[in-house]
Amino acid sequence: MDAGERQRCSPLILTQTTNSYSPFLPHYLMHLSIVIPAFNEEQLILDCLQSIQQSVGANQRPGFTHEVIVVDNNSTDKTAELAKQAGATVVFEPVNQIGRARNAGAAVATGDWLLFVDADSLLNPGMIADILQLIENGRYVGCGSVLHMPGLPWWGNAAMRLWTALSVTFHWAAGALVVCRTDAFRDVGGFNQEMFAADEIDLSQLLKKWGRQRGLKFTILTRHPLETSPRKTQLYTGREIAGQLLRVIFSPRKTLLDKKKLPIWYDGRR
Which residue, among 183, 182, 185, 165, has the nearest Cα to 174 in the 3D structure? Predict the structure, then answer.
């Protein structure tokens, strides 16, 4: 896709336009924005927010601050109410699309770095420690993480092993967790709003290109996997999931650009 074909989030003026930390200082001054897109997630949003509080709390250090932004992606349940009660900043995105929700959160974020995590996922202290070390290293534009889904059926485990191999080999972030410099995210235009799925792979490619031009790397963290819900394997049959994946493989453009062809992502089963 050329630039004229892409619809991306509009760049906004940042409160901090450059990183304020240096690899030669004992501590970094860094503000991390954690963005959670959420559609009808009242069952899981509090667990996600609690995992963030515990993980960040275990990694407090001088100069490190954070904010939590939940994007209510036109929910019809108590997702927004519960997030507000838990102390998160809540913004509303009326169009039910994962890329738009992530971009809406990034648009109000004030951090030097962005961490996008899905509402059905749980951060852990080791992962946050690895992310902060990566940031302080000064040689990376961003990262993703390998995933852990407890309770998968055998075919789900096989699919997860295949995805993990592809993710680590090609440095493709899973949508459940994407971390990147805010300036890089804004420069490349954020998540592609023409795509209704796999936009995290598209963003990974753009961040890798942005990073190469500046001598920076994009990597996949492997030491402390992100735990994420296996609910799709519980809500959909193996045949339904296989059919969805085959449509993406054999007709990627038509499928990824058409919400109606992606029911596993958008039919709202919870």
Answer: 165
pTM of the shown model: 0.88
Specify the CATH class of 27-229 in words: alpha beta
Single-letter amino acid, residue 80 = A
Beta strands across the sheet bearing 177-181: 89-92, 64-72, 30-38, 113-117, 177-181, 140-148, 217-228, 121-122
Confirm if 167 and 219 have CB atoms less than 8 A apart: no
Written as six digits, the tokens of 172 are: 């493709």
Picking from 243, 232, 244, 237, the residue whose alpha carbon sits closest to that of residue 269 is 232
3-class secondary-structure state, position 194:
coil
Q: What is the CA radius of gyration of the chain?
A: 18
The SS3 assignment for 241 reads helix
Length of the chain: 270
One-letter amino acid at 267 equals: D
Eight-class DSSP state of 93? -
Per-residue pLDDT of the chain (270 residues; tens, 9 = 90+): 444 333 333 333 233 333 333 333 345 689 999 999 999 999 999 999 999 999 999 999 999 999 999 999 999 999 999 999 999 999 999 999 999 999 999 999 999 999 999 999 999 999 999 999 999 999 999 999 999 999 999 999 999 999 999 999 999 999 999 999 999 999 999 999 999 999 999 999 999 999 999 999 999 999 999 999 999 998 888 889 989 888 998 898 899 999 899 988 888 788
Torsion of CA 34, 85, 101, 144, to 10 degrees: 30
b/e code 214-243 from CB counts within 10 Å (16+ = b)? eebbbbbbeebbbbbbbebbeebeeeebee
Annotated domain spans of the chain: 27-229
